[in-house]
């Protein structure tokens, strides 16, 4: 399982770097949106995951979403608790610069309504929306970033095994679109990202705040509620 948390940690650093790059070039706002379902049985989990991913693609074709946003990073995270599953799609979302000031703003109730419409269901929905702001504790977050890099290096030196679950069919767990896909593609062309503190622009408080939120995201199935790299024994 730790191999997936290692991937999650790597993506948090990469996305931090990507946010700082976008912020230097464009005036945008950032949201973190979480969409999902609650209390899914093992019998229905694969079908519900299919429905969620189809619904997600449908959601981002709606006019109000498409006009207000500039792309996304999304991660499929499936939390298992007892005999129930709680699938989530975590979304890092850049929006137009006037998002909070004009007619493009999407209220929480509208997010719920649109997610319900996209899935064509009304029950057991999960929706969480928050604006990424610059009010976090930069010093504490930067300490986490440094600690995370040391833990990442330690994990790289150890043998991590991936745990497979035969009940969950294989799926694409992460994806980038539009603006963020363009930025990611440019990274791949330039080979311009190295995982170290010298590469990261830690003066960007927005990116720092997003990084802290992304530490709790996990690609794929998990039973841990929190990132084991940042458990009390490691921090």
Summarize this entry quickly.
The chain has helices at residues 2-25, 45-59, 63-68, 108-119, 138-157, 178-190, 205-214, and strands spanning 29-37, 40-41, 71-81, 84-95, 125-131, 174-177, 220-222. The chain is an alpha+beta fold and 235 residues long.
What does this structure look like?
The protein has 235 residues and is an alpha+beta fold. The chain has seven helices and seven strands, in the order αββααββαβαβααβ. Strands 1, 2, 3, 4, 5, 6 and 7 form a seven-stranded mixed β-sheet that branches. A hairpin with a 2-residue loop joins strand 3 and strand 4. Helix 1 (2-25) runs antiparallel to helix 7 (205-214) and helix 5 (138-157) packs across helix 7 (205-214). The radius of gyration is 18 Å and the shape is globular.
How are the secondary structure elements laid out?
Elements: H1 2-25, E1 29-37, E2 40-41, H2 45-59, H3 63-68, E3 71-81, E4 84-95, H4 108-119, E5 125-131, H5 138-157, E6 174-177, H6 178-190, H7 205-214, E7 220-222
Parallel strand pairs: 3-7
Antiparallel strand pairs: 1-4, 1-5, 2-4, 3-4, 3-6
Number of helices: 7
For the largest beta-sheet, the strand count, sense and barrel status come to: 7 strands, mixed
Residue ranges: pLDDT <50 for 5 or more in a row?
Answer: none
Give the termini separation.
Answer: 19 Å
Number of strands: 7
The helix-strand sequence is HEEHHEEHEHEHHE
Task: Please tell me the overall pLDDT.
Answer: 87
Round the Cα radius of gyration to an integer and report it.
18 Å
Strand content: 15-25%
Structural class: alpha+beta
Helix percent band: 40-55%
Characterize the overall form. globular
């Amino acid at each position: 399982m730790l191999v997936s948390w290692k991937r999650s940690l790597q993506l948090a650093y990469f996305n931090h770097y990507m946010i700082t790059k976008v912020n230097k070039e464009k005036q945008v706002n950032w949201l973190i949106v979480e969409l999902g379902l609650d209390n899914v049985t093992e019998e229905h989990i694969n079908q519900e995951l299919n429905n969620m991913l189809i619904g997600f693609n449908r959601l981002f074709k709606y006019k109000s979403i498409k006009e207000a946003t500039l792309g996304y990073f999304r991660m499929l995270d499936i939390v298992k608790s007892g005999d129930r599953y709680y699938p989530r799609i975590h979304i890092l979302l850049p929006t137009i610069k006037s998002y909070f000031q004009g007619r493009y703003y999407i209220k929480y109730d509208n997010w719920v309504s649109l997610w319900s419409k996209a899935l064509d269901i009304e029950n057991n929905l999960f929706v969480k929306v928050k604006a990424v702001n610059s009010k976090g504790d930069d010093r504490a977050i930067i300490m986490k970033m440094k600690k995370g890099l040391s833990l990442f290096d330690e994990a790289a030196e150890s043998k991590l095994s991936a745990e497979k679950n035969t009940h969950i069919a294989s799926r694409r767990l992460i994806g980038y679109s539009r603006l963020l896909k363009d930025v990611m593609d440019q990274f791949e062309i330039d080979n311009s990202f190295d995982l170290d503190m010298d590469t990261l622009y830690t003066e960007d408080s927005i990116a720092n705040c997003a990084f802290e939120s992304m530490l709790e995201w996990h690609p794929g199935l998990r039973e841990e509620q929190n990132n084991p790299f940042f458990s009390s024994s490691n921090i």
